[in-house]
Amino acid sequence: MDLADDGLVQGFTEVLLQNHVEVALEWLHLLGFIKHFYPELEATKHLQQEPGRHHKDVWEHTKLVVKQSVKRPSVRWAALLHDIGKVPTRTFTSSGVHFHGHAEVGARMFDKVNRRLPLEEDLRRKVRFLIKYHLRSAQYEEDWSDSAIRRFARDMEKHLVDLLDLSRADITSKRPGRRRQLLFQISALADRIDALRAEDAKGPNLPKGLGLEIIKRFDVPPSKTLGNLMKLIEAKVEEGEIEKQRDFDYYLDWLEGSGLLPE
């Protein structure tokens, strides 16, 4: 990238961080800047997301997403380009308009965009990741298991905050009820991630090897009975009835006096 290109990218980044970015983007579109430098984005103009609703074309949606997003370069660049994959993936069926796989396709299209006017490497990686996974948060359901939540947080890694912020900005429904529902869904996902992280940070409640010590003292074989005794002790720790991370004898003595051991 030569100095001229570098200055162009920096200047456009500054535009993206402005308060009235949607006005600036429309002005750049009218000047031909978008068509010349970002034809993949220009192609979203008049690309309808719902039949018969012009305000739902991808370009209008994109401007609103950028406007609603937090003022971080990674999020605003991703907001600008997150739906470019809708152009080649649009299909029509009896059930409506579909854009299957547009996030993954958009990430690959971004590679070409970035070769034309490269972003700084760390920013490039963030933007590509956000484009590829921008739909993941919206797939959250209340019945996700804790392990699924942990896996989601692990997969998103250091991009999680940006991804959730982009997901919030990507909500452009004009129906207040629908908007509240989607925002609540993202907040619920974030809250569950925070709760599980706090729980995991506390460490295990019981010392490693306690099960073996129960086997030795009480002659309880490895079995469902042993598993139930371990679950019982764990539950009593969670309830605050007994303390966490004490020595073996503390738990063995409690168990012996509990009257819960098998005859």
Report on this structure.
The structure is a single chain. With 263 residues, the chain is mainly α. The chain is 64% helix and 2% strand. The chain is built from 15 helices and 2 strands. It starts with a helix and ends in a 5-residue tail after the last helix. The mean pLDDT is 91.
Q: Give me the count of strands.
A: 2
Helical/strand content category: mainly alpha
How would you describe the shape? elongated
What profile does the largest beta sheet have? 2 strands, antiparallel
Give the averaged pLDDT, no decimals: 91
How far is the first residue's CA from the last residue's CA?
78 Å
Element pattern in H and E:
HHHHHHHEEHHHHHHHH
Count of DSSP H/I helices: 15
Biggest sheet: strand arrangement:
1-2
Q: Regions with pLDDT < 50 over 5+ consecutive residues?
A: none
* Total domain units: 3
Helix content: 55-70%
Beta content comes to: under 5%
Radius of gyration equals: 26 Å
Secondary structure layout plus pairing:
Blueprint lengths: L2 H14 L4 H11 L1 H5 L1 H4 L15 H11 L4 H9 L4 H4 L1 E3 L2 E3 L3 H15 L4 H13 L12 H11 L3 H10 L6 H26 L8 H9 L5 H16 L8 H11 L5
Helix pairs in contact: 2-5, 5-6, 6-9, 6-11, 8-9, 10-12
